[in-house]
């Protein structure tokens, strides 16, 4: 792939990734606000306690095949066909196992009402399996615009249905139906946008070379889901649905922020880095550029979200969610580092080192689990558990850097040079926004807007005075498209 072609494809992918994730997160935000006002923490907590099982089931049916197919140099119909039938088979089997395990899950949480809800929510697994191969085709071929349209359409339709059901008193069943509808629409759109179609000539032999790579991603993805949802499980076991609901509300807002950036990077990072993985020097140059762009967006966005949490929660979902405010403030600090860690993991996968990716994630999960269990034994609060989770996310960035140095020569000094200017500028800008709001005072909307406008203006001004290359390239690209 020529240099100019690679640059253009990366820029185009990032642009449509931004459109996709920006529009999707905005829709999540709007529908989340409406549902948050209609439903309470306990109702969100009921679905939240089942989320980890659904995500693990989806990881099983996907089995790391999407990334594995993206790394195949010469792809064939037989590769996609084998993945389609394998994913469908695993998805159906996973659903049947979880269907019969629903009473055990309900007993674990001491919530009998979870039995029918679990069996309904777990339908997401076989539904998602129908679109795994088509999604892999779109991902491999950088069809980011098509993925963007799929997600936007799915969010609109599922959000409207969820609100309608909640309005008519279906409580947490409305949330569950919203999630299922989203997957159904995404799957249908994936079939529409992908020209590839499965055939009934089933041959699983092409999976053998893929499985050596994808099996490690499968284990890693399951570990990732445990890592991301561990606190929901712990809170559901040792606290109550309301505690789970408050944590999930806080984490949902946090995820809305960092997933915009993570999704944008994820749509292009691995395919682009995989295409140049045999050129160490070029890989380092391209990776550092993407890293700076990621930091340029992540630090101001997530630190900014942290300082407006109080106003945001009260203005949107109301006082009944006050318990989520301190949790969200902490989570957003750690959320600034999530896109960076995800970018490093994409680099490792693009190098074909799924075993290292797997070991790294498992180590992080085990460490987090041990620390949380120790805190429970010591009578630690929910806030202490969140602090540990945030600190672990920040520290783990340097673990990833150690592996990046081995593969592309990224040194700690280079990492800090790429990140610190954006991190420090974001801290200063957010501090200025917060201080200005304290001086002006006034009602919640006034302090909310003051923080945002002052912080954004300060960040932009410092970047402009420092002649930040990333800022100028973004402006040039947007003007060019215009």
UniProtKB/TrEMBL annotation:
Pfam families: Polysacc_synt_3. One of its GO terms (cellular component) is plasma membrane. CDD domains: MATE_tuaB_like (cd13127). The chain crosses the membrane at residues 14-36, 42-61, 82-105, 117-139, 148-167, 173-193, 290-308, 328-349, 356-376, 382-403, 415-436, 442-462. It is found in: Cell membrane. Its main location: membrane. Keywords: Cell membrane, Membrane, Transmembrane, Transmembrane helix. This is Polysaccharide biosynthesis protein.
């Amino acid at each position: 792939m020529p240099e100019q072609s690679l640059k253009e494809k990366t820029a185009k992918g990032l642009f449509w990734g931004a459109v996709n994730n920006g529009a999707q997160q905005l829709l999540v935000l709007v529908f989340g606000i409406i549902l948050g006002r209609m439903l309470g923490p306990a109702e969100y907590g009921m679905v939240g306690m089942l989320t980890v099982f659904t995500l693990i089931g989806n990881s099983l049916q996907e089995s790391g095949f999407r990334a594995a197919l993206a790394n195949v140099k010469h792809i064939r119909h037989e590769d996609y066909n084998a993945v389609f039938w394998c994913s469908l088979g695993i998805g159906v089997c996973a659903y049947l196992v979880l269907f019969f395990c629903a009473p055990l899950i309900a007993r674990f949480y001491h919530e009998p009402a979870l039995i029918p809800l679990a069996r309904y929510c777990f339908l997401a697994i076989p539904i998602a399996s129908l679109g795994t191969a088509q999604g892999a085709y779109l991902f491999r071929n950088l069809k980011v615009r098509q993925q963007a349209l799929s997600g936007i359409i799915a969010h609109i339709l599922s959000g409207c249905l969820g609100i309608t059901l909640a309005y008519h008193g279906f409580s947490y069943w409305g949330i569950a139906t919203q999630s299922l509808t989203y997957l159904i629409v995404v799957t249908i759109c994936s079939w529409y946008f992908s020209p590839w179609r499965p055939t009934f000539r089933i041959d699983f032999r092409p999976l053998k070379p893929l499985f050596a790579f994808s099996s490690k991603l499968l284990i890693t993805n399951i570990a990732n889901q445990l890592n991301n949802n561990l606190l929901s499980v712990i809170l559901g076991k040792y606290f109550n649905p309301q505690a789970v609901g408050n944590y999930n509300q806080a984490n949902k807002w946090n995820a809305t922020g960092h997933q915009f950036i993570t999704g944008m990077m994820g749509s292009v990072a691995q395919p682009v880095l995989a295409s140049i993985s045999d050129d160490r020097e070029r890989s380092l140059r391209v990776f550092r550029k993407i890293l700076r762009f990621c930091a340029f967006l992540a630090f101001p966005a997530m630190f900014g979200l942290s300082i407006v949490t109080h106003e945001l929660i009260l203005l949107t979902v109301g006082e009944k969610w006050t318990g989520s405010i301190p949790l969200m403030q902490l989570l957003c600090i750690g959320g600034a580092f999530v896109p960076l860690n995800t970018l490093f993991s994409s680099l490792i996968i693009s190098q074909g080192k799924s075993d290292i990716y797997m070991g790294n994630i498992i180590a992080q999960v085990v460490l987090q689990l041990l620390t949380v269990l120790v805190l429970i034994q010591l009578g630690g609060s929910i806030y202490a558990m969140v602090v540990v989770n945030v600190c672990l996310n920040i520290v783990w960035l340097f673990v990833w850097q150690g592996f990046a140095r081995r593969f592309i020569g990224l040194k700690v000094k280079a990492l800090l040079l790429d990140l610190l200017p954006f991190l420090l500028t974001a801290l200063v800008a957010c501090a200025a926004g917060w201080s200005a709001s304290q001086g002006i005072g006034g009602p919640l909307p006034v302090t909310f807007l003051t923080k945002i406008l002052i912080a954004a203006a300060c960040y932009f001004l410092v970047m402009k005075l420092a002649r930040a290359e990333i800022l100028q390239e973004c402006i040039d690209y947007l003007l060019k498209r215009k």
